[in-house]
């Protein structure tokens, strides 16, 4: 049985985490994968911590439980690092919970991966850390703070979980009705820049 | 099932609620009366976009409560229209009195029920307390494990409800958030295929046919009331055959056949879990893990809860030594949860019936994991070994 890869997104409401999880799922579907993408719902208010999840597999996905041990974690809002994310589905929790030794963190920050490793309190050799200034990229390309799409580009480069083309083509093909050409171009650029600018250790 | 008969549309990634809204659009009902409630809201939100875009000809009625939504569906259906709605939790609870009127008047109304816990305490997440509370209301109930099943069930619901041998309302249940808000991959049917499958609805005795006046919902005193109920009871029992026929026809057309129950690795199983909706998928994964270790474990997932498939249940569980029925709803101070009660009762007349225990799980969205399923199977093997059940009914994980 092929292994199902699990992804967890951390952000705050209105930063596009749920949309990012959806876009990743759609792009992976475009590559012929089986996918699931779902948010964790709690009280809905702007700025509240939110989580979203993806499952990606070569086989049909039958699991319908929460993602507890994600291989990949994307931290869209670095102020969540070190916070106790209790409430909602879990009694407790933090952004590093359940991530295995070969896990991957991608953090939206202008800081370096080693600075983030420190902030995340990860021992040397445990997981790998990538950083990208997704907030800066989105302000430049989209014209406002919407760090989700640059994070997707960074994810593509850092993990090769999904091809950059699959992400950009899905957005161009399936969102042209919903968004103006300017918004589409901005987000596609944001993905490309996220891909180019992500840094590893 | 042969794939060459399957629909040619490609796979899509949709949430459960988007898929239900799309199915409603493809069915294009005459009337949709609604009062949205979490987590079913986006079914109605997206369907209202189809209405606004002119993609459907539906008369979209926004009412002031779920009680009114069901009342408006009853009026529309009695007048001869195809009527649909969607709700959850407190919304379904508020419809309660009208649910009985819909079924008693034999109106083929279709409702998407996105399962959610009931207050108090207030909770927006999944359990089956809402639809289980409506289990004696005379509605046919179809349950859905995945987005694909929920989508497919809605088309079949229309055909079942409107069949002249049935003429009863049907609710299609799917798990709140777990299925309603999760994006899954599914195969869609085209608008033409959908229209062709459900066909046109022509009510036999519509109230608006003034040339042939009919009376509906009349007073029935002790001399006739019980006869009405007897006929209604026979009708819902007989709908089982129609559910089977429609499931077969759906399979023939689109490559996905449906029965009354679904089983997984049950044929040679020593122990089995009986469970509804999305948690069945997680149980399948646990089964694969245990089968890899040589343990004979299986699953029985009822698709139909009303009418209850007693005979099929007995047939499927023959040879199984111990069964655990998992309920995502309690029947407070009843003899176990609603599903446990039905299954145990169905097995009573069976020779060499399996040992059977019940567990309440997942209330208010509490996670049900593969580890939970594995623990249940281990407990069942203990029952087989000792021949004894320690705790017949219990809450799991709290």
Task: List key phrases describing it.
heterodimer; A: 201 residues; alpha/beta; Pyruvate-ferredoxin Oxidoreductase, domain 3; 6-stranded mixed sheet; B: 398 residues; Rossmann fold; 7-stranded mixed sheet; 12 helices; 15 strands; 40% helix
Please describe the topology of this protein:
The complex is a heterodimer of chains A (201) and B (398).
Chain A: E1 5-12, H1 17-30, E2 34-40, E3 49-57, E4 72-75, E5 104-108, H2 113-120, E6 128-132, H3 134-141, H4 148-159, H5 164-174, H6 181-197
Parallel strand pairs in A: 1-4, 4-5, 5-6
Antiparallel strand pairs in A: 1-3, 2-3
Chain B: E1 11-15, H1 16-27, E2 31-34, H2 41-52, E3 59-62, H3 66-78, E4 83-87, H4 89-104, E5 110-115, H5 129-133, E6 140-143, H6 147-162, E7 170-175, E8 183-187, H7 191-198, H8 225-254, E9 261-264, E10 271-274, H9 279-292, E11 297-302, E12 304-306, H10 310-316, E13 322-327, H11 338-346, E14 355-360, H12 370-386, E15 393-395
Parallel strand pairs in B: 2-3, 2-4, 4-5, 5-7, 6-7, 10-11, 10-13, 13-14, 14-15
Antiparallel strand pairs in B: 1-8, 6-12, 9-11
Helix pairs in contact in B: 1-2, 1-6, 3-4, 6-8, 9-12
Q: Would you kindly provide a written description of the structure presented here, covering whatever features stand out?
A:
Chain A has one domain: Pyruvate-ferredoxin oxidoreductase, PFOR, domain III (Pyruvate-ferredoxin Oxidoreductase, domain 3). Chain A is built from 6 helices and 6 strands, in the order βαββββαβαααα. In chain A, α3 crosses α4. The N and C termini of chain A lie far apart (32 Å). In chain B, α1 crosses α2, α6 crosses α8 and α9 crosses α12. Chain B has 398 residues and is an alpha/beta fold. In chain B, the strands form 3 sheets. Chain B has a 7-stranded mixed sheet, sandwiched between helices. A 6-stranded mixed sheet of chain B has the order 9-11-10-13-14-15, sandwiched between helices. In chain B, 40% of the residues lie in helices and 18% in strands. At the A-B interface, α1 and β2 of A face β1, β8 and α9 of B. β2 of chain A pairs antiparallel with β8 of chain B.
């Amino acid at each position: 049985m092929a292994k199902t890869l699990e992804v967890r997104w951390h952000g705050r409401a209105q930063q596009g985490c749920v949309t990012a999880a959806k876009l990743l799922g759609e792009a992976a579907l475009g590559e012929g994968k089986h996918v699931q993408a779902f948010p964790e719902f709690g009280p809905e208010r702007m700025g509240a911590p939110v989580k979203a999840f993806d499952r990606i597999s070569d086989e049909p996905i039958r699991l319908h439980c929460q993602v507890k041990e994600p291989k990949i974690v994307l931290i869209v809002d670095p102020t969540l690092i070190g916070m106790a994310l209790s409430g909602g589905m879990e009694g407790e929790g933090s952004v590093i919970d359940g991530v295995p030794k070969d896990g991957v963190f991608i953090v939206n920050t202008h800081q370096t991966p080693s600075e983030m490793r420190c902030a995340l309190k990860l021992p040397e050799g445990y997981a790998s850390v990538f950083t990208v200034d997704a907030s800066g990229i989105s302000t430049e390309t989209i014209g406002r703070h919407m760090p989700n799409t640059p994070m997707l580009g960074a994810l593509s480069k850092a993990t090769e979980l999904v091809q950059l083309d699959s992400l950009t083509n899905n957005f161009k093909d399936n969102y042209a009705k919903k968004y103006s050409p300017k918004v589409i171009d901005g987000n596609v650029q944001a993905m490309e820049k996220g891909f180019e600018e992500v840094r590893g250790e | 099932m042969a794939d060459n008969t399957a629909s040619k549309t490609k796979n899509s990634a949709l949430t459960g609620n988007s898929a239900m809204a799309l199915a409603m659009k493809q069915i294009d009902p005459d009337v949709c009366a609604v009062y949205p409630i979490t987590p079913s809201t986006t079914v109605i939100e997206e369907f209202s976009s189809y209405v606004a875009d002119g993609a459907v000809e539906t008369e979209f009625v926004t009412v002031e409560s779920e009680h009114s939504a069901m009342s408006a569906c009853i009026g529309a259906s009695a007048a001869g229209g195809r009527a649909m709605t969607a709700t959850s939790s407190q919304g379904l609870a508020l419809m309660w009195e009208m649910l009985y009127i819909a079924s008693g008047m034999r109106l083929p109304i279709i409702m998407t029920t996105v399962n959610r816990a009931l207050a108090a305490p207030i909770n927006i997440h999944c359990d089956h307390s809402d639809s289980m509370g409506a289990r004696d209301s005379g509605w046919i109930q179809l349950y859905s494990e995945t987005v694909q099943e929920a989508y497919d069930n809605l088309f079949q619901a229309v055909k079942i409800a409107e069949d002249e041998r049935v003429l009863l309302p049907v609710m299609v249940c799917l798990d709140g958030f777990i299925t309603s808000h999760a994006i899954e991959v599914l195969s869609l049917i085209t608008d033409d295929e959908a229209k062709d499958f459900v066909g046109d609805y022509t009510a036999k005795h519509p109230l608006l046919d003034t040339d042939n006046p009919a009376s509906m919902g009349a007073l029935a005193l002790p001399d006739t009331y019980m006869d009405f109920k007897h006929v209604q009871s026979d009708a819902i029992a007989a709908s089982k055959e129609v559910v089977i026929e429609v499931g077969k026809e759906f399979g023939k057309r689109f490559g996905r056949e449906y029965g009354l129950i679904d089983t997984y690795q049950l044929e040679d199983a020593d122990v089995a879990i009986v469970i509804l909706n999305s948690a069945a998928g997680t149980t399948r994964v646990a089964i694969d893990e245990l089968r890899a270790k040589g343990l004979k474990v299986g699953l029985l997932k009822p698709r139909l809860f009303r009418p209850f498939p007693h005979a099929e249940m007995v047939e499927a569980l023959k040879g199984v030594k111990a069964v655990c029925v998992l309920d995502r709803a309690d029947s407070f101070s009843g003899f176990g949860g609603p599903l446990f009660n039905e299954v145990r009762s169905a097995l009573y007349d069976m020779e060499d019936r399996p040992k059977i225990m019940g567990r309440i799980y997942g209330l208010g969205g509490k996670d049900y994991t593969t580890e939970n399923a594995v623990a249940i199977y281990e407990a069942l093997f203990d029952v087989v070994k000792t021949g004894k059940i320690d705790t017949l009914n219990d809450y799991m994980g709290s």
